[in-house]
UniProtKB/TrEMBL annotation, chain A:
<feature type="domain" description="NADH:ubiquinone oxidoreductase 30kDa subunit">
    <location>
        <begin position="12"/>
        <end position="95"/>
    </location>
</feature>
<dbReference type="GO" id="GO:0050136">
    <property type="term" value="F:NADH dehydrogenase (quinone) (non-electrogenic) activity"/>
</dbReference>
<dbReference type="InterPro" id="IPR001268">
    <property type="entry name" value="NADH_UbQ_OxRdtase_30kDa_su"/>
</dbReference>
<protein>
    <submittedName>
        <fullName>NADH-quinone oxidoreductase subunit C</fullName>
        <ecNumber>1.6.5.9</ecNumber>
    </submittedName>
</protein>
<dbReference type="InterPro" id="IPR037232">
    <property type="entry name" value="NADH_quin_OxRdtase_su_C/D-like"/>
</dbReference>
<keyword id="KW-0560">Oxidoreductase</keyword>
<dbReference type="Pfam" id="PF00329">
    <property type="entry name" value="Complex1_30kDa"/>
</dbReference>
Automatic annotation (TrEMBL), chain B:
<dbReference type="InterPro" id="IPR017900">
    <property type="entry name" value="4Fe4S_Fe_S_CS"/>
</dbReference>
<dbReference type="GO" id="GO:0016491">
    <property type="term" value="F:oxidoreductase activity"/>
</dbReference>
<keyword id="KW-0479">Metal-binding</keyword>
<feature type="domain" description="4Fe-4S ferredoxin-type">
    <location>
        <begin position="36"/>
        <end position="65"/>
    </location>
</feature>
<dbReference type="Pfam" id="PF12838">
    <property type="entry name" value="Fer4_7"/>
</dbReference>
<keyword id="KW-0408">Iron</keyword>
<dbReference type="GO" id="GO:0051539">
    <property type="term" value="F:4 iron, 4 sulfur cluster binding"/>
</dbReference>
<dbReference type="InterPro" id="IPR010226">
    <property type="entry name" value="NADH_quinone_OxRdtase_chainI"/>
</dbReference>
<dbReference type="GO" id="GO:0046872">
    <property type="term" value="F:metal ion binding"/>
</dbReference>
């Protein structure tokens, strides 16, 4: 049995994020992942949703210290991704339902993947 | 549920012996494809450096002028990429695993490949005759 | 007002295959709240993509996890192949399917053994792992490695399975299926096992879907989500049905995985019967430029590899979202109400693979 899988990506602005997410939630989409990439000096955050194998992706581009509102009011399980994003990249996310305040992923260096990390080499290979 | 089910199971287990292999007294089960460790043939290596470039763990180092080929066994993951990549058959994969070591040393080999002498080219007027 | 105490569970615990830390808030013996904490095994594998060229990264992707290793490599290869527009030959797709299903059999048998051990039933643990040895022998004979296969590469597969070996596997599947039936009979019909598992960690259908859980954990609550239905690799040509249960407790999760054993055996039989001839791989030319979300059904659920390239040998970003990370919110919702002695069983019922979560 084969179901066609389509992937669509739309860019969204910071103010419209909560509204778009609520619209997808009312439509019956489930949250797949929230991922962060650093391009140049800013972060690109991808919010991925899926329903019946139809894949929708919301893309948000923010600078290093911009505060991002949490979507855990709509999707309860989003706290895992948002805490991880905060602990690894240093993006301040406001209003997470279970906020670990930096202790979710305990690492030797604070915000190891952020664009402003010290040293130039992304991975110190011994 | 029949009678004496447990007794039958116990007797079957007693008669059968242990279900595991007594490794290392008995050698481990291997198949012809098992990736154990990489073996280097110094006489076939032409120092092209393909194995060193393909290694995903950066375990192989070559010094062309000093004719040294070294492998760091503790970095090698036995993936077999170098064996596939060597165009001259200088590397093979053996099936046995290497025993554990207590100190970290790097294995060095001296490359002994000698380029075969090409027969000396005769000047044209000598070979053109008859 | 009963007193509340906090008991740390993990990171070292005999029942956990990998380290995860949970702070359990208890009132007498009942768990009231659970607070997870991860980060014990973070190796920074996503950053390694900037150091390893994209064909070499397959080896890193394989070693993210030992239990679901082939499917990580498959997901990565599919992602890069989609970005570069490479079409994999048919024989390679069927071989990948066979190895994926062997991986799934091996993973579910491992999980059944660990689950029996968590309940205290050690003999059943030994029997499950003894059965798992025959799957590992097949994997070793066909790929060279018991746990890390090393056969998937961008453009196809590195190794072939000869027709004699395929015939041998097909014949061995009958007796293997017989032994699986005996084993799952104990898991599903034994009185003590049922007494331990029924009614434990119940999550309803809507709650499970809203929490974003994936895999057998969510299929046990009645939600029918199985990525093999999208038809990647050779699944589009094979006929199968996802296993779905409705009760949503630990017994249902065990039943889903036991049922998937038989689906896998059936899929391997179908793939061997329909195996086409042809080349094993295609030559890879050029560099990846673009992005793609590649999704595959691992034994634990849906894994997403987000890959992005910009035309150079090194990919810019690889983001891996593993199924256990999506199941952690469901674990946090499942634990309140359980007794302290049942916590290992509940934690293990989502099949935690923390080395994947913490790449």
């Amino acid at each position: 049995m084969r179901v066609n899988e389509e992937q669509t990506t739309i860019s969204v602005a910071l103010e419209d994020l909560t509204r778009e997410v609520e619209r997808l939630h009312a439509d019956g989409y489930r949250l797949v992942q929230i991922g962060c990439t650093d391009i140049g000096g800013s972060y690109e955050i991808n919010y991925s949703f899926d329903k019946d194998y139809r894949f929708r992706n919301l893309r948000l581009t923010v600078g290093p210290e911009t505060e991002v509102p949490s979507i855990s009011g709509t999707y309860w399980g989003a706290f895992v991704y948002e805490n991880e994003m905060h602990d690894l990249f240093g993006i301040p996310v406001t209003g997470i339902n279970i906020d670990f305040k930096g202790t979710f992923i305990r690492s030797a260096e604070k915000y190891p993947f952020s664009v402003t990390r010290r040293g130039g080499d992304p991975c110190r290979n011994a | 549920m029949g009678l004496f089910e447990m007794t039958k199971t116990v007797l079957r287990n007693l008669a059968g012996g242990p279900a595991t292999r007594r490794y290392p007294a008995v050698p481990a089960r291997t198949s012809p494809l098992t990736r154990g460790h990489v073996v280097f043939n110094p006489a076939a290596c032409r120092s092209c450096g393909l194995c060193s470039r393909r290694c995903p763990c950066e375990a192989i180092r070559i010094e062309k002028e000093a004719k040294i080929w070294e492998i760091d066994r503790l970095r090698c993951a036995a993936c077999g990429d170098c064996v596939e990549g060597c165009p001259f058959g200088g590397l093979t994969m053996e099936q046995t695993y290497l025993p554990p070591v207590v100190e970290h040393t790097v294995e060095r080999h001296t490359i002994t490949y000698v380029k075969p002498e090409k027969p000396a080219k005769k000047p044209a007027d000598e070979s053109a005759g008859a | 007002m009963p007193e509340r105490i906090v008991v740390p569970f993990g990171p070292q615990h005999p029942v956990l295959p990998e380290p995860i830390h949970l702070d359990l808030v208890l009132e007498d013996e009942t768990v009231v709240e659970a607070v997870p904490s991860i980060g014990y095994i973070h190796r920074g594998l996503e950053q390694l993509v900037q150091k390893r060229e994209f064909p070499e990264y397959v080896y890193v992707a394989e070693r993210i996890c030992g239990i679901c290793s082939f499917m990580h490599a498959l997901c990565y290869c599919q992602g890069v192949e989609h970005i570069m527009g490479i079409e994999v030959p048919d024989r390679a797709r069927y071989l990948r399917t066979i190895w994926s299903e062997c991986s799934r059999l091996h993973s579910h048998l491992l999980w059944l053994g660990l689950f029996a051990d968590a309940m205290g039933f050690e003999n059943l643990f030994m029997r499950s792992w003894q059965l798992r040895e025959s799957v590992l022998d097949v994997l070793e004979d066909t790929t060279g490695g018991r746990v890390i296969q090393g056969t998937c590469k961008i453009g196809g597969v590195r190794r072939d399975i000869e027709p004699e070996k395929l015939g041998e596997m097909h014949r061995a599947l009958d007796s293997f299926e017989e032994k699986c039936r005996d084993l799952t009979d104990v898991f599903l019909n034994d009185e003590t096992v049922k007494y331990r598992l029924r009614g434990l960690g119940v999550v309803g259908k809507d709650a499970a879907y809203a929490l974003g859980a994936v895999g057998p954990t969510v299929r046990a609550s009645g939600v029918r989500v199985d990525l093999r239905e999208t038809g990647y690799a050779a699944y589009g040509d094979l006929d199968f049905r996802p296993v779905v249960e409705t009760t949503g407790d630990c017994y249902a999760r065990c039943a889903v995985r036991a049922g998937e054993l038989f689906t896998s055996i059936d899929l391997i039989r179908q793939a061997i019967d329909a195996m086409p001839d042809g080349p094993l791989d295609v030559k890879v030319k050029g560099m990846p430029d673009g992005e793609y979300f590649s999704r595959v059904e691992q034994p634990r659920g849906e894994v997403v590899h987000y890959l992005r390239g910009n035309g150079t040998k090194h990919l810019v970003r690889s983001r891996i979202r593993t199924p256990t990370l999506a199941n952690i919110p469901m674990l946090v919702k499942m634990l309140p109400g359980a007794q302290l002695a049942d916590v290992p069983v509940v934690v293990l019922s989502i099949d935690p693979c923390i080395s994947c979560t913490e790449r």
